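Weekly structure sync - notes
Attendees: PM, LS, DV (DV joined late)
Agenda: review two folding runs queued last week.

Item 1: First target. Sequence and structure tokens pasted below for the record.
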Amino acid sequence: MYRTSDGEDIFIIDAHIALWDGSPENQLNRHGEEFISCFYDYHKNLSPEEKLWPYDKFRKFNTEDLVKDVLINGYVDMAIFQPVALTDFYKNGFGDIELNARLAKKYPGRFIGNGTFDPRDGDGGLDYLEYLKQTHDIQGVKLYTAEWRGESKGYKLSSKGAKRYLEKCIELDIKNIHVHKGPTITPLNRDAFDVADIDDAASCYPELNFIVEHCGLPRLEDFCWIATQEKNVYAGLSVVMPFIHTRPRYFAEIISELLYWLDEDRILFGSDYAIWEPGWLIEKFMAFELPEDIKQETGADLTRAVKKKILSENAARLYGIDIEKQKSKFRNEKLAVR
């Protein structure tokens, strides 16, 4: 938990973390190195100097690093894994859903492991989605619409194939659909991350929550115009958060636009660990105030009550988390890397 200067303990849910293997041993081809190298460029360009990782560690870190950086030193009480497969680039996949599940079992109540799907996997993919629900009781999925499959370099949520999977999610009670709609990552195609297909999917399936990770950047305006009409569309702040360090005015403009168009009930904090560690992001966010001219123009304000919604309460509502119950459970718990 994050403790304020006046002694209030603020519960933190990091809604976007990952545990990956981008090491040379796991790379299937040159695209594996291109992808993790692009990740590292974001890490270098937007992190405080003292928070930079060596490249070898960044390509493949371990569960002990994650627990220390997120739960022990990062103020985070609970975190949600958002796995990415990238099986065209990595021998054993970039993320590992089973490893995430084992870590969640090792630290009860601390981690939520989401699944993933790709509509190009056909009937076999639907069976796998059912396996993930039955075995791990997943509450959400992370989707990478620009992921490659053979000659295909992406898909749209508005396609018939994707709708089969979204309907399967409804059937299985998997309600939280996290979709990467943000900056491109080499060698993936920028246009495959366009936000336009969110509009159709959200309209067709009001039973589902569509959390648009990275809130569509650099297409923030398009995202906001969609989200203001589709009340089941949410903004995930991963990638947005580190601009609080390198471009605080830009961060203020983004967060004020989100507050203006969506309101404070549909914005979720995410660190995008391990590109960035949550600790310094949370410290800077809690200290951050919007410039007066932006507040006057948009009517937005980052009060403590608003920050608490963004840092945990909104994600708790989507995932059925009782914050006060979890606070009581964790208050005297001593975490250690095991």
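Item 2: Second target, run right after the first with the same settings.
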Amino acid sequence: MPTSDFDVHDPAFVTDPHRTFDDLRERCPVAWTDDLGGFWMLTRHADIARVTTDTRTWVSSVQNAVPKLPNTGRRGPLHFDPPEHTAYRRALNPVFAADRVAEVRPAIDAMVHDLTGPFVAAGGGDVVAAVIRHVPIRALCLLLGIPPDLADDLLDATVRFVASVHDVDPEETKAQSYRIYDRSREILRDRARRPLDDDGLSAMLSIELDGRPLDEEMAVGTLRQVVVAAHVGPVLGLAGIVMHLGEDRALQDRLRADPALRGPAVEELLRLHAPNTGFTRTPTCPVELHGRVIEVDQPVAVNYAAASRDPDVFTDPDAVDLDRGDVGMAFGHGIHKCIGQHLARAQLHAVVDELLDTTDAFALTVPRDELGFTQLPEHGPLEVPLAIEPRTG
């Protein structure tokens, strides 16, 4: 094996991994590290697009993230390849479709308004703890028809699970994963006893593989996967966007003056602060890429955050350009592109709109490099302390 090309535990990497990604993209686009059990990392947009499109050579069913999570069962659709993956997505796509999200968008906006009002009135604080952390699970409950009184317990278990992954604490990871399994099992059993017409939970229960209904544990695993995935990306994406706006008063003022720019701004800031760095694929045969041989079953991180700042694709990639459009890889690429992207975007827009419309300004109260950040398989701020100037006009 090669020697390590980068150190995931380097404090500079944890705080701002994009400098490392820039270096690797130029010097070593197929990079190896011994950290976290050993894995390869891809940082070029073209390589990541190739790997995530070729589902015969590169699979998700062996390992799908670094660090590797304790074995707590296979969960669709993330842990599956075609044709099983296709069956899951066919059943779940309508549940998370744009028109279904549009139906609950007013309720999401109202929920965000209720969370943000006290935060703004208090003059600020940590917007992640006060607002952002609560939004994704509540939004998912609204979309799937999960009783809202279960949201706080699901949130607590998910926050603890994610923290244990970043801390590389396998026992706690297993404990919290099984806790989410237990809640998911209770939710689905209740829905099976009292089915509703055309709701998301009933759609999960209707999934068929090879013409046979999904067994309960597979359905439970699917809901458990959806709960975790629906939380992690939106929280970190929102935190990154608000952090950026908290440092850029001029951009805030532009977006208040011209709300039509907010859509492009959300997409561009999400590209800049794409949270996913450690989703993986593994090859089914040895593959040579840029002169390096990746052996069968060696994990390869397809770094969507690095791909979203590749200068071969994005001119001046570290700058905000509101004319780029939806071109980043924040929601992934290929058949595993995020099924919840419409729900996530609804949350991003709701929070950004609420913060801009209820304030004259907001600003970070500490320098960015003093914030705490997550580690692989994601990157994003753990807290975003803001000072708020409430709206006066």
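Discussion on item 2: The mean pLDDT is 92.
Action: LS to circulate a short write-up before next sync.
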